[in-house]
Prior knowledge:
By secondary structure, this protein is α+β, with helices and mostly antiparallel strands. The chain contains eleven helices and four strands, in the order αααααααααβαββαβ. Helices cover about 65% and strands about 10% of the residues. A hairpin with a 6-residue loop joins β2 and β3.
Amino acid sequence: MTATQKKTLGTSLRRYAFTVPWNLFLLTAGSLLVAFAIKCVAVPHGLLAGGVSGLALLGFYVIPALDTGAWYFLLNVPIMLLGWFKVSRRFVLYSLYGMAATSVLIERLDYVLPVADPWLAVIACGVALGAGIGVALRSMGSTGGADILAVAVRERFGMPIGRFEFLFNLGVFALGLATMKIEAVLYSVAMNFLAGWVTDACLSMFSERRMAMVISARPEAVVQAVLHRLGRGATVLEARGGWSGEPRQVVLVMLNNLEVKRLEELVYEIDPGAFLIMGSGFNVLGQGFSGRKEY
């Protein structure tokens, strides 16, 4: 595949990522995982999820006449109204679908994960819940609940989403102490810590980028190789040697993880004495990489 064909394919895939079918697919898959974590693992083992799903579980534990899915839907209604006016209509409409799908799946699922060890339940619930939230957040919406509140607070006050959800979950666990045994609450804290880690892993799994800086005696040859053989863009920075004081050109390239080794081979094929610096460039926005997500 030529560099031009790679660019065309990449552009098509990025455009598809913003289409309605793809977003609905991500929300459906994420909702299924979240529903499985809550209904099939958390409820049978008495665990407390974070966010609005945790409040829904508390409501079910206190008033079991309403199922967890019904509690989840009722608690999300005022949150959706807030998101409609404070974030965007598109974000809320996608999140409304995610919330409805999660509520329906929680009602429909009738399975209990057959594990007796509470720590196995913690691990299974944390992984499924974190993966579900992470998959859903890769869309233009969410599964509802605290994610909408977090986005609204960030838009209004600039508070990071992770910090808001941490504070929100502290309140949920404080309420849990009043209605649950402390052992169950502590298991739930561990489960939500794992869920947060898995969520971050899902969000970064296909988005992590690498930044490379090449200091070479043949910068133009490196640029041409990056453009035509690697199929990436390059930026030439004017620099000066700290010891020699001589002017230099530094080639800056952004890559995905699969292209790092290829760049290394190209650089040292051109200039065995080149100096190559690589670092994390996570969350790269722009042509050839991720598009800016506008809710």
